[in-house]
What we know:
Blueprint: H1 10-17, H2 26-38, H3 51-57, H4 62-74, E1 78-81, E2 84-87, H5 90-94, E3 100-106, H6 112-117, H7 122-134, E4 137-143, H8 147-157, E5 163-167, H9 171-188, E6 194-198, E7 209-212, H10 214-231, E8 236-242, H11 247-264, E9 270-275, H12 284-295, H13 299-304, H14 312-316, E10 319-322, H15 325-328, E11 336-340, H16 343-352, H17 354-360, E12 365-368, E13 381-385, H18 387-399, E14 416-419
Helix pairs in contact: 2-4, 3-4, 7-18, 8-9, 10-11
Amino acid sequence: MRGKGTFVPQEMQAASAAPAGRIRSVDSVAQLLYEQVCAGALKRGETLPPVKHYSLEWNVSRATVIAALRVLTRRQIVHKLGRNYVVGAATELVLRHPRREIFFFHVPAAPLARLYNDHTFTLGFRAMENELLRQGYAFTYVPASSFDHFSHTWKSSRRYPHGLFLAYLRQEEYDGIAHQLGELLKRAGTQRPAVLVAGKVTARRLPHTHYFNHGHANTELFRTLASYIHRNRFERLFVCYDENDHYDVTVYSTFKLWMETKHLDERIPVRYLVRNETHRSETSSQYRARLLTQFGPGYIQRGINKYSGVNEQQMASDIELVDDFRREFRRARKGDVWVFFRDHHAVEAIESNERLWTRIRSGCGVVGTENDPAFLDKALSTCVVDQHTLGYLMAHAIIGDFPVARSSRGYLNAPVMMLERSTTP
């Protein structure tokens, strides 16, 4: 009937006409919605799309969707408000609770100012704190060296904080805390505080503890980027980075992109273009040898063992030292995708080869990995971690009100966005 019902965009109707696989059971629909809540795609306090949206998207009846929402309502995952459903239990969203305390253990040598102003995941940490404050929680910042004192006080009084956050402790500091923390969690029983550990932890893992790792976030990012490259059938991949930019993180990240790309299609040629101003007299072969030596024998090989017939020497042979990314971009052609670790390098390459870019842009892709606000007017396509959602998930890992999505290795899943603007076809 004209004027009745829910408006559904034409593109949604087309996408829903041929779903990947028909979903029939109420439990399956409820599980899909629940997974979206756990992954941060549906956030607490947000209104769910109308029933007709899910009916078309998953090719199920409206009755099935409504029944699934009722299941989630009984589990207090969502609640009904008028004709809509809202994520979260009504009592949790409406009633005010006294402010609850979360202890933030940090290393005094690594100032908090850097974490909140000049860190790779600064936006994520700020979003985490904002979400905690919004939910009625507040950080108490204390040095990691005082953990023993607080642990003893909590165990003696049997009064525990709601949560603990251990941020980027050095390995020896984490090792010193891990045993005490394990004992604390065991003794606390049902009063056990939620724990989030951010940083690289190679030793003891604790039960009932969430871990966030920079390296795992990079893996998710480059897995998403590799899927994009494969899905769009690009013929060649060029990866451009400056050796001076966070050397260890950047170099190993490029290897992850190589691994994920080759995992999807071993035939696609991959070329690393490395600007090396520190060792100007070094040849490409000398740089490759230094690279493999610096990471240690077999370190890279362990990461690529899942690819039969491939070894770290083959990967290293794809590295080429260059002086200027702008000059190298002259070899670009349709069917290429160029990934730049620094957005300004991507913009410079395009602007200095404007005539070439005009000719090939309909079939060539240029992607950054920073989403630098200084270049938003250049409409550079980019692949980045969704730090707002990441902060939301970290906050709720500490709150413990729902099981946030984790990887098979137990790390917090870092949500990634592929933002296609005008530099990808």
